[in-house]
Structure to design on (221 residues):
């Protein structure tokens, strides 16, 4: 499990230690227990499912879980979900465990930042598989890395890219103002994405590249 359960316990301890109200500590403890139960039962962990369980117990309303003051709750749920997805990814079609080169993530001292990086790594694996599938399906994506007189940046021809409606909605959400607020991120110079403390999470060109991909994919679909 590459210490991932220990990382979740570290994050849980940190969140619990910073909680001043008894009700918040109680909610964190129940979320931790609920997610652990779902994980053992191989039930897909989600905000909606955990929120429903909390609402049934009278601890927290389902809608309240989506508010800004409940960010610590969502962070703990995301940690469990990321760990659950990570285990799913480590099992191939033969049922054998795959080893991913993520040892460096375990060396990140801050538990919250370590979990965020691990979550991004999991998403990156998903995106990588989707890109490979698109390349095999479309077969017309070309990458020109030659420097031109007008630009030294690599240009990618995505004119033939056809996106499904679900993919368009997912990409649109990933760059929406609402999603950025939920993650406590904001837009930076050149189309970059910055954290709440101004740290660059995604480099310049991310937002403009996503917009071009959406326009091309929506126009071709």
């Amino acid at each position: 499990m590459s210490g991932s359960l220990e990382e979740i316990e570290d994050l849980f301890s940190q969140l619990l230690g910073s909680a001043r109200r008894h009700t918040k500590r109680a909610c964190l403890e129940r979320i931790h227990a609920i997610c652990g139960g779902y994980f053992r039962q191989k039930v897909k962990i989600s905000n909606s499912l955990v929120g429903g369980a909390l609402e049934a117990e009278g601890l927290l309303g389902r809608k309240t879980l989506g508010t800004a003051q409940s960010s610590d709750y969502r962070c703990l749920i995301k940690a469990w979900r990321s760990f659950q997805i990570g285990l799913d990814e480590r099992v191939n079609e033969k049922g054998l465990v795959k080893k991913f080169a993520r040892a460096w993530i375990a060396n990140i001292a801050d538990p919250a930042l370590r979990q965020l990086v691990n979550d991004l790594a999991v998403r990156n694996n998903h995106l990588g598989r989707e890109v490979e599938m698109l390349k095999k399906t479309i077969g017309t994506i070309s990458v020109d890395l030659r420097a031109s007189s007008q630009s030294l940046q690599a240009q990618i021809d995505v004119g033939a890219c056809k996106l499904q409606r679900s993919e368009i909605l997912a990409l649109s959400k990933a760059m929406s103002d609402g999603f950025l607020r939920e993650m406590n991120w904001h837009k930076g110079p050149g189309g970059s994405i910055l954290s709440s403390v101004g740290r660059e999470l995604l480099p310049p060109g991310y937002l403009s590249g996503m917009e071009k991909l959406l326009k091309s994919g929506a126009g071709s679909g």
